[in-house]
Amino acid sequence: MQSYIWAFLIGGLICAIGQILMDGFKLTPAHTMCTFVVLGAILGGLGLYEPLIKFAGAGASVPISSFGYSLVRGALLEAEKTGIVGVLTGIFEITSAGISSAIIFGFISSLIFRPKG
Asked: How far apart are CA 24 and CA 86, in angstroms?
């Protein structure tokens, strides 16, 4: 039960920071999203995002900041195995399932629902 509370609090805090960026600093949603991806990548590269995921679970692994973390994690893991080429292949290997599912489900949704135009 306690892990659900921490996931809710950490996930909510990440979302609240995003809302503050949009309202207080007048950032667009696209700028806010890019900021979170870059922050996730930086924290992942410094080794600070993984402990956050272990502590908060889905509260830290669901927001867009975990995408930046995943990019860096994949690049670093593959770079250790195969060298500099692994930086590029690792990025695609670890994030391909999420990106593919987003494309597939987005396509299916576009077939089912019609946008109002």
From this structure: 40
Return the DSSP state at 39: H
Q: Look at residue 114 and tell me whether its pLDDT is greater than 90.
A: no
User: Residue 16 has which token pair?
Assistant: 């609240």
* Contact status, residue 68 vs residue 75, Cβ threshold 8 Å: no
- 41-61: burial string, b at 16+ Cβ within 10 Å, e else: bebbbeeebeebbeebbebbb
Residue partners of 23: CB distance under 8 A and separation at least 6:
none
Render pLDDT for 35-62 as a digit per residue (tens, 0 to 9): 999 999 999 999 999 999 999 999 999 9
pTM of the entire predicted model: 0.82
Token pair 């309202």 is at which residue? 23
Residue 117 has a pLDDT of 60
CA-based nearest residue to 94, from 112, 115, 116, 67: 67
Nearest to 63 by CA among 100, 3, 18, 2: 18
Give the integer Cα–Cα distance in Å for 31 and 18.
10
